[in-house]
Design brief:
Blueprint: E1 5-11, H1 15-26, E2 31-34, E3 51-53, H2 64-81, E4 86-88, E5 91-96, H3 100-112, E6 116-120, H4 121-127, E7 137-142, E8 146-148, H5 150-163, E9 167-169, E10 174-180, E11 183-188, E12 193-201, H6 207-210, E13 219-228, E14 244-250, E15 253-258, E16 265-270, H7 288-301, E17 309-319, E18 326-330, E19 333-340, H8 350-363
Parallel strand pairs: 1-2, 1-12, 2-9, 5-14, 12-19
Antiparallel strand pairs: 3-8, 4-8, 5-7, 6-7, 10-11, 11-12, 13-16, 13-17, 14-15, 15-16, 18-19
Helix pairs in contact: 1-5, 1-8, 2-8
The structure holds flavin-adenine dinucleotide.
Flavin-adenine dinucleotide binds at residues 11-17, 34-37, 39, 43-46, 48, 51-52, 173-174, 202-204, 206, 210, 223, 225, 268, 315-317, 340-342, 344-348.
Length: 379
């Protein structure tokens, strides 16, 4: 094989690119992967210690087969590495009576046999003394809800890929690529060229900048995460003593809170951020108004939580207009695969997306229904 060439080139080694690189290299393909930074890092969308995983999927039943496979793969990765990758605590979603979100969870559970438990506000209060739902609220407990640990998962996928022979080029930003029926080429910022048979673009919040010809309708949304020391009831915020929980404080608007995995209790407002450019985003400053808004919502439902803020972090969602993913070949190039599963809920799918990438690139298809994630839905 010519120097600087591989079966597959991968641009972006975050959640999905690292999983794809692992799966391709595990199956004997020669892969060269590139990342602007040194993943896992805190410049993209995959930092912050823990990500929620849940099975009875409120975003639609079509996600359940995918996430079910991801559960298996997270457990396999945990066994292979001896490192904790996934923790099942249950996941509680609390919403107004008749909330669309809660009925969508039921629909997914009914269709795919996911284990859930409906709870009244009284039942929630008496089960966990830290929760104070309003009387006009109901809740659903997803028994398989829990957390996965993004930095550990990405690191493991990359380390295993390297053992399998993948060539990982960190601190290598790709500034150009092209493709023809005979292969693909990428060019780094310093002018080096690399060649391959196929290309994966898994560049997260930068994906649209690498696919300008497609005018992908991706909007990048600033998200701010906070870690709290509880005011009281510290033990109740430990994993195992309470589930992760999300609260629909207004119709369709939620906050989510995760147990304390060592850095404090993490909380954030889901989708409430400004549209930003990933290259100019201020990652160092969090507005006092952002903090105050979150704290005032938490006080309503989990009043013993919002004590001292001990950590803050800025992250990005890469949203499509319908909040579904993009997993599809470039419309002009059947050897270029675009992976953008985000819209604020993509991490839990990264292991299965890695498998799908392998199947698409080697067999041209996948056992999963990828129609909802096609690029031509935008045209
Ligand atoms: C605050 C927050 C909370 C979230 N919570 C959840 C949750 O609870 N559950 C869940 O399932 N999902 C959640 N998500 C979504 C999930 O984290 C993302 O969907 C997922 O991490 C996106 O992975 P990615 O591979 O697309 O992007 P990233 O992991 O950001 O990877 C993209 C990589 O591409 C690299 N790159 C970009 N451009 C180039 C270039 N030109 N050359 C080389 N490299 C390049 C970047 O450096 C980066 O490493 C959350 C996201 C955020 C921001």
């Amino acid at each position: 094989m010519v120097k600087n060439s591989a079966d597959v080139l991968v641009i972006g080694l975050g959640a999905h690119g690292s999983a794809a690189t692992y799966n391709l290299s595990r199956n004997g393909l020669k892969v060269i992967g590139f990342d602007t930074y040194h993943p896992p890092h805190d410049m993209g969308s995959s930092h912050g210690q823990a990500r929620i995983i849940r099975k009875a999927y409120s975003e639609g039943p079509h996600y359940v087969p995918l996430v079910s496979r991801s559960y298996d793969l997270f457990f396999q990765l945990q066994e292979l590495t001896g490192t904790k990758m996934i923790n099942i605590t249950g996941g509680l979603q609390v919403g107004r009576k008749g909330s669309l979100r809660l009925s969508s969870i039921k629909e997914s559970a009914d269709m795919h046999g996911c284990e859930i438990e409906f709870m009244t506000a009284d039942e929630v209060r008496s089960t966990w003394n830290i929760f104070e739902p309003e009387d006009n609220m109901d809740a659903v407990l997803d028994i398989m809800g829990g957390a996965v640990f993004p930095e550990k998962v990405i690191d493991a996928h990359l380390q295993l890929a390297r053992i399998n022979g993948a060539d990982l080029k960190f601190n290598h930003k790709i500034v150009n690529w092209d493709a023809s029926s005979s292969g693909v080429r990428v060019e780094t910022e310093s002018g080096d060229e690399f060649f391959g048979d196929k290309l994966i673009i898994s560049a997260g919040a930068w994906a649209h900048k690498l696919c300008l010809d497609l005018s992908l309708p991706l909007s990048i949304e600033r998200q701010v995460l906070f870690w709290f020391n509880p005011i009281s009831n510290n033990d109740m915020f430990l994993p195992g003593n309470s589930p992760n929980h999300s609260w629909e404080y207004e119709s369709g608007q939620t906050i989510y809170i995760q147990p304390n995995y060592g850095r404090g209790v993490k909380a954030a407002i889901h989708h409430d951020g400004l549209e930003v450019d990933p290259d100019t985003l201020d990652r160092n400053n969090v507005l006092r108004s952002e903090e105050k808004k979150l704290i005032s919502i938490i006080r309503r439902y989990v009043p013993s939580l919002p004590g001292e803020v001990i950590g803050r972090s800025v992250c990005m969602y890469t949203n499509t207009p319908d909040l579904e993913f993009i997993i599809d070949f470039h419309p002009e190039h059947s050897n270029v695969l675009i992976l953008s599963p985000c819209s604020g809920h993509g991490f839990k799918f990264s292991p299965v997306v890695g498998e799908i990438a392998f199947n698409l690139l080697t067999e041209g298809n996948s056992e999963f229904d990828l129609m909802p994630f096609s690029i031509n839905r935008f045209t």
